[in-house]
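Example: Extracellular solute-binding protein.
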Amino acid sequence: MRRKAQRLHTPSRRSVLLGALAASAAFTRPAGAQTATLQVVTSFPEELTIRYEEEFEKLHPDAHIQFVWKQTRDALDYLVKPDQSGADVYWAPSPNNFFMLRERSAFRKIAVDRAALPGKLQDLQLSDPDGYFEAYDVAGYGIVTNPALLKQRGLDAPRSWRDLASPAYSGQIVMPNAAKVGFSPALYDIVLQSEGWDKGWALLSEIAANAQLLDAGHLPTRDVTDGRAPLGLSIDFFASQARANGLAVDFVYPAKTAFLPAHVAITASTKRPDLAKAFVDFLLSNQGQRLMMENGSSRHPARPDAYVDKPAALVDPFTLPKGAIAAYDLEIGRRRPGLVVSLFDILITERREKTAALWRELHAAELKHSGEATPPALAEARRLAGFVPVSARDAANPSFLESYAARDKIDPAITQKWRSEIDAAHAKAKELLAGAAL
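Written out as structure tokens, the predicted fold is:
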């Protein structure tokens, strides 16, 4: 009889479940049989983890997987406790946790075949170069579209991040609020890294002028499938889920997007290193990687040979043209969410209507000068409209980023200084736009 994998949530639940398991085992396990229990800390949903439980226990009938479900912050707290709380494997889409735990010597090295598991996607490093954690899957970031609604409104699907700033898409986009929707800081940092820090913030500001910002509880894909907007900034996984449920949506991977990984690692404190290695090897095997594409989940394996006979709608990122994927720096990216959220709040969320009006005024001035050399004053107005009060050099400095890791710990005097600098830049831009030359 197959044992359903335990999913532990709290200490009290843990003791109850362990007691129930022991009682059950007394009746179902043959006399003298021993079961090795492997504790896997994860945030992946049960509909995925249960596939791995079933297939792994077929291969290892004397093993039992005990899943401990923890979201990012709780998982980190759990894995830094003495003996890492008994955990053997950590498996989750939480890149920052893996980097932080590696720095605390919390993992054992994993040996993999780099011919089968390159650990890279074009110039994007997916796995730890020193071998302490390995990419399990990748998620692509881009634009979810409602083709019927685009056609109804006479619009073509965008092909780049820059396309979204076109006045033609005014009122046609939903984008997540960086402070409210969990995946959005990474999405915006992809734009910032692929376009450059200063140009990236200017572009995000210009896109936001065309968009509605969504708060917690609202996902762009849902708004797009429900017909509230034809375009949304999102992750391909949500679009794949919608398609699997019969909804007519497409997904655009803009030029210079990124596919960000989920990882797996073996804990340094494991008492079952051989069994932990066997489970990780299974996750990363061709069979294990193909499991993630079954039952409509359409995740992207980190192993190229797993894409043979893939679902027709699933893009193989390993076959995308050279240069289609940004050389995203995970080490910098995992340090930036606090700063990205703080700047998004001040640059975009707080002043969205005023900034949107500024961009509309700028677009109208640029339209008047289309087909001719751009007046210097107009070029300067554009630069000022996209002004960001933090330099690209600081935004790539780990020490600086550490100081802005938590929004609630940033000195209010600093954020007020940022607001004043932005206000001054926008006021100057409006002054230039009002000039006689424009």
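Residues 1-7, 9-32 have pLDDT under 50 and may be disordered.
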